């Protein structure tokens, strides 16, 4: 849910390839930003790497935390991105869905259900279910 003064977001996640070819699922606006501002994407990736190393959380915990944060921000693009990355990192669909379930009591039912839907769309596309 957005608070007062917080703009709507459709954030794309950091470039996990470090500047390599971008996957097809990234929004065109993100691809254009990468093309027009490669130095900023590089700086963003370096910041992300530093943030990951700044504490004791492992990759799995960071992925779940980022998904939860994306749900709390009601950011469809970030929820989808982190759900895709969670699957790629070996998390199960049930674990990923559980993050949306946990969001009911903190982000609210509407945000959690929206995220649950976005997560299911990602999972269904990845697993061939429908």
Question: What does this protein structure show overall?
Answer:
Mean pLDDT is 84; it is low at 1-22. The protein starts with 27 loop residues before the first helix and ends with a helix. It folds into 2 domains: 26-55, no CATH class; 58-130, AhpD-like (Up-down Bundle). The protein is built from 6 helices and no strands. The chain has 130 residues and is mainly α. It is globular. The chain is 62% helix and 0% strand. Helix 3 (59-72) runs antiparallel to helix 4, helix 4 (76-88) crosses helix 6 and helix 5 (93-102) runs antiparallel to helix 6 (109-127).
Largest sheet, in brief, is:
none
**Content-based structural category:** mainly alpha
Rg (C-alpha, Å): 15 Å
Uncertain runs? 1-22
Give the tally of structural domains.
Answer: 2
Shape: globular
| CATH fold-level topology of the largest domain | AhpD-like
Tally of strands = 0
List the helices and strands and how they pair.
Elements: H1 28-36, H2 38-52, H3 59-72, H4 76-88, H5 93-102, H6 109-127
Question: What attributes does this structure have?
Answer:
130 residues; AhpD-like; disordered N terminus; 6 helices; mainly alpha
Short description, anyone?
The protein has 130 residues and is mainly alpha-helical. It has helices at 28-36, 38-52, 59-72, 76-88, 93-102, 109-127. The chain folds into two domains: 26-55, no CATH class; 58-130, AhpD-like, CATH 1.20.1290.
């Amino acid at each position: 849910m957005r608070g007062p003064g917080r703009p709507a977001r459709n954030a794309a996640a950091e470039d996990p390839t470090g500047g390599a070819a971008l996957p097809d699922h990234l929004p065109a606006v993100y691809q254009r930003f990468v093309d027009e501002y490669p130095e900023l994407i590089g700086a963003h990736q370096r910041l992300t790497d530093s943030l990951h190393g700044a504490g004791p959380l492992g990759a799995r915990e960071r992925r779940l935390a980022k998904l939860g944060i994306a749900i709390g921000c009601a950011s469809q693009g970030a929820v989808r991105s982190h759900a895709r990355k969670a699957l790629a990192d070996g998390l199960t669909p049930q674990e990923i869905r559980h993050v949306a379930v946990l969001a009911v009591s903190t982000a609210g039912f509407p945000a959690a259900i929206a995220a649950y839907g976005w997560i299911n769309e990602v999972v269904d596309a990845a697993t061939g279910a429908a």
